[in-house]
């Protein structure tokens, strides 16, 4: 009977596995830095405009390459980036798709490379200035496991020699398939300003970085602590019930003989 009192709570703890604290959460404002890299594709009716900070992509673009000037400023919890793309040809861009790359870091976690990507559709050919504001949110596909030792995940490996690797489709595939972290824009707002056609494109972003919630995998000792506490609380209940039954049986002499033979 005593064996049951010890083991039944253990079984109960296993059965109620869902109650184990396998993950924990915390809130933090991550350190997010624009790492200077971007890829931008402008789609015109009969051509493409390509601008990026990756030499392989730029040289593969040939005459589709459009040089760009990038500037950025950052505050405690915001980043402003502005991009000026020189359009020497008189082309009508109908949509733009881009990826801007950031490195983020948490106090106890080495972080990762992440990107925001988006498509902007231009309703008029004379639109030349786009101002976008958004709040950044980091979405994680699995809880943080390996804290400081983690190697910084690179979304774009700039040593790669194949231009296709830098296409939006490939970048997006890596974001979806390989990356643990995904950067999202929320509370977006966008302003379009017109300028004479032929003028340079100017795109600016203002990102604000709020405090966010992160999930991490509880370490073994953390888990053991919770499992132990849970075991103890269930054990006390079982113990109490056991004592009740024992006393009841004893007082009523139900198992009088069994009881005494064992003792
Ligand atoms: C650009 O093209 C449009 C029509 O396609 C034309 O009206 C305009 O004058 C052109 N601008 C320049 C600077 O060539
Ligand atoms: C980056 O690409 C180069 C060339 O393909 C490769 O040798 C290197 O291992 C890659 N680095 C990472 C971290 O994947």
From TrEMBL:
Which parts pass through the membrane?
A: 220-242
The signal peptide here is: 1-25
Q: Which GO terms describe its cellular component?
A: ciliary membrane; ciliary transition zone
What InterPro entries does its record include?
TMEM231
Q: Which domain of life is it from?
A: Eukaryota
Record GO biological process: cilium assembly; regulation of protein localization
Compartment list: Cell projection, Cilium membrane
Pfam families (alphabetical): TM231
Sorted alphabetically, which keywords does the UniProt record give?
A: Cell membrane, Cell projection, Cilium, Glycoprotein, Membrane, Signal, Transmembrane, Transmembrane helix
Q: How is it placed in the membrane, per its record?
A: Multi-pass membrane protein
Function as written in the Swiss-Prot or TrEMBL entry: Transmembrane component of the tectonic-like complex, a complex localized at the transition zone of primary cilia and acting as a barrier that prevents diffusion of transmembrane proteins between the cilia and plasma membranes. Required for ciliogenesis and sonic hedgehog/SHH signaling.
Q: Which PANTHER family match?
A: CHST5 PROTEIN, TRANSMEMBRANE PROTEIN 231
Q: Which family does it belong to?
A: Belongs to the TMEM231 family.
Q: What is this protein called?
A: Transmembrane protein 231
| Organism for this UniProt entry | Caenorhabditis angaria
